[in-house]
Design brief:
CATH class of the largest domain: Alpha Beta
Structural class: alpha+beta
Radius of gyration: 19 Å
Largest sheet: 4 strands, antiparallel
Number of strands: 14
CATH architecture of the largest domain: Alpha-Beta Barrel
Number of helices: 4
Strand order of the largest sheet: 7-10-13-12
Number of domains: 2
CATH topology of the largest domain: TIM Barrel
Order of helices and strands: HEEEEHEHEHEEEEEEEE
CATH superfamily of the largest domain: Glycosidases
Helix content: 10-25%
Length: 222
């Protein structure tokens, strides 16, 4: 498939998904595809994982340790493939809100790995449900440099991020962060200048920052 795509265009990312059995923690053994005898560079690993309580009346009893160990195995696959990750499926649904801490655990895990993700749901009114209070959270959209890490403490309303901008980076290029609502306070190192920009049609904002080469730290209170 990769060879057929590359015969038409060099653009686009080849997405690699695991098999169903790797959803359960069995190691993913596929190698990155090759074209013309060379490893394909534009590859993204897109694993899935669910605790077996997902989409049942017992979702409140989903195990963080159980699903966390599955994603730890996916992390090992990512490191073996040397690729970015977009978690292709996770989440599901259940009655009430008692399972929301499980969702927050996974969001924090994804942030610690610097993974992107897509939430899986059947609901047509998904964006109006209480779960959006958990899912709508700050994240780095683009970073002018090497991202060192980011985290969000929802209970405290605190987002933090760090990155290193090298001499080779364009100093005028922006680092952009998504905020689900207007910040109450923004703290950054003196070499980083940030300004908020409202996203039309909603409550979300973008935080646009520029700085000189060096290590930068950012904290936002929401």
């Amino acid at each position: 498939m990769t060879a057929a795509v590359r015969a038409c265009t060099q653009n686009g990312v080849i997405m690699m998904e695991n098999s169903y059995y790797s959803n359960l923690g069995i190691p993913y053994s596929a190698e990155a595809p090759q074209t013309d005898g060379r490893r394909e560079e534009n590859v993204c690993f897109s694993p899935h994982a669910y605790d077996f309580m997902v989409d049942t009346d017992a979702y409140a009893y989903a195990s963080n340790d159980r699903v966390g160990s599955i994603f730890e195995e996916h992390r090992r696959s990512q490191e073996r493939l040397h690729s970015p990750v977009l978690v292709g499926e996770w989440g599901g649904g259940g009655e009430g809100e008692s399972w929301f801490p499980h969702i927050e655990f996974l969001l924090n895990l994804f942030d610690s790995y610097a993974w992107s993700n897509t939430y899986y749901t059947y609901s047509e009114d998904f964006f109006d449900q209480p779960l959006m209070r958990v899912l709508s959270r700050p994240y780095p959209v683009a970073v002018n440099g090497t991202l060192q890490g980011f985290s969000y403490d929802r209970a405290a309303g605190r987002f933090a991020a760090g990155f290193i901008q090298s001499l080779q980076n364009d100093a005028a290029a922006e680092s952009i962060f998504y905020l689900p609502r207007k910040a109450e306070r923004i703290s950054a190192d003196p070499a980083l200048q940030c300004a908020e920009e409202a996203i039309p049609g909603g409550e979300a904002w973008l935080l646009r920052c520029t700085g000189s080469p060096g290590e930068h730290r950012l904290e936002v209170a929401l």
